[in-house]
Amino acid sequence: MADHSDCPSTAGDGLLPAELHAWMLMLAATGAVEQELRSVVKERLDVSHDEFLVLCLLAGNPSEGLRMTRIAELLGRPKTRLTYQIACLQHAGLVTRQSVCGDKRGIEVVLTEKARGLLKDASGVLAQTVKEALARIMGPTQRQAMGALVPDFAEDSAPE
């Protein structure tokens, strides 16, 4: 992937307000990361990128589960699509589904020990993939801004 730091669209002096410009830069960076993560996620976890996103949400607080409606809301996915993804993850032994106490319609999804182990083992490679993808797509100014969100990003990810 080419370094886009010299691209005029990253200069920030165009027609877009700063907030929209920043949003577009973030989307471009997110797209680059997603593309690179897809193959690593498939190789390391043997799940799709969308299934990986579900696992990441659940890994945010692994001792608790999340309701399927909340997962769908956080990912901006239709509930029917999420139901299929959860079924695939359950078939792979990575999540369990259970009824929510006191709500017969509510379903909660929880990571299994197998999923916790896989995520723990793969997290270093996945984090490095993210940092490298961001470093390739972002120029020095964008890396510095990202450094406010991800500690040590600006220093660790500068192209050599």
Overview of this protein structure:
This protein is mainly alpha-helical. The protein has a single domain, classed as Orthogonal Bundle (Arc Repressor Mutant, subunit A), CATH 1.10.10.10. It has seven helices and three strands. It has helices spanning 18-45, 49-59, 68-75, 79-91, 113-137, 140-147, 153-156, and strands at 66-67, 95-100, 103-111. It has a three-stranded antiparallel sheet with strand order 1-3-2. Strand 2 and strand 3 (103-111) form a beta hairpin. Helix 1 (18-45) crosses helix 5 (113-137). The protein is globular and about 55 Å long. It starts with 17 loop residues before the first helix and ends with a helix.
Give structural attributes.
mainly alpha, Arc Repressor Mutant, subunit A, 160 residues, 3 strands, disordered N terminus, 7 helices, globular, three-stranded antiparallel beta sheet
Question: What is the CATH C level class, in words?
Answer: Mainly Alpha
Task: Tell me the fraction of residues in β-strands, as a range.
Answer: 5-15%
Mean pLDDT over the residues: 82
Outline type: globular
The CATH topology: Arc Repressor Mutant, subunit A
CATH architecture: Orthogonal Bundle
- The CATH superfamily bears the name Winged helix-like DNA-binding domain superfamily/Winged helix DNA-binding domain
Tell how many strands the DSSP assignment holds.
Answer: 3
Distance between the termini: 15 Å
Stretches with pLDDT under 50, minimum 5 residues: 1-11
Spatial strand order of the main sheet: 1-3-2
